[in-house]
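Hi everyone,

Forwarding the result from last night's run.
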Amino acid sequence: MNETEQVSHLIGEVYDAALDPALWPRVLEATASFIPVSAVNLFAQDALKKSANVFYIHGLDPAYIQSYLDTYIKINPLFPTSLFLEVGRIVTEDEVLPRDQLRSTRFFKEWVEPQGYIDSMATILEKSSVSCAVFSVLRHRRDGTVDARARRGMELIVPHIRRALLIGKVIDLHKVEAAALADALDGLAAGMFLVDGVGRIVHANVSGHRMLARGDVLRTAGPRLSAVDGSAERALLEAFSAAGAGDGAIGTKGIAVTLSRTEDQPHVAHVLPLTAGARRQAGNKYSAVAAVFVHQATLEGYTPFETIAQHFRLTPAELGVMLAIVQIGGVPEVAPVLGISEPTVKTHLQRVFEKTGTNRQADLVKLVAGFMSPLAEPPP
């Protein structure tokens, strides 16, 4: 199998996993081989609770996963900074934290290095005000550090992983038989439309018909599915056309198309190709090239950490020290966690005190707690 065939087959399996979650372990194994890397993770982390929910993994020792959940998630220096990343952007670990600094941290010395991992890449698949879903891959000593081939492999597969994850959340079913896709999703709360390559509707579920009847975010233009918003209309048409050309052609088109921009009714559409894999059965049955899932979404807001940094104009290094002081303790405890010297911690901390108008660790704890509370207003 050449690279084109390999990536096409892998992308097809990713989209089949959107309908059948049991396929994800096999998808991650194939992804590890394609990029190539030694371990792959699909998980979510909560910024407030310092907790994680591991959805699917490949290549990681279960004992190390448990130790991460129990201990090392609280001192992972990469996590606070990663919350600032743009959704879908792929970064290596040294783009988040300088390599020398990371290797000086307790997290690297006690959790990463003993497993033999020397480099990694990650991307935020979805982000809310308090948590984020992450897709990450790790390179072992035998793999070498991230190179151009590995980054290209990651760039090819990440948009499809993200689309499949978002559609899986909307469907929220254990398994959907592809051949019976329309019947299985007729009762779905989200609107679901099967369309051909130019957007003609060949099937819509009950929720979809209701959306068309309201006409506030979607409407029909003759037999075609059309968005009220002009830019959304163009994005949908591009996605439908690409879906007709196969899984690989759709790329980033139609991952999450914003259909309305009003705060009271934000709606998002996700486009799933039906031209390959097990999904082809549904496509052939209905003469459709894509399934479109439309649902009301919560507008993304800043995480509390982003809000704190912007409000007080803190640098990433200053924010990292501030959060470490609040969550871990004094300067001697924080230095090995962040991989920097005690004098450097003191310098950053003094700047934090000056910018926030505080002078004690207890004051910082109260300040951060105020931003973390969903009922609290940021200070003037």
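Residues 374-380 have pLDDT under 50 and may be disordered.

Cheers,
N.
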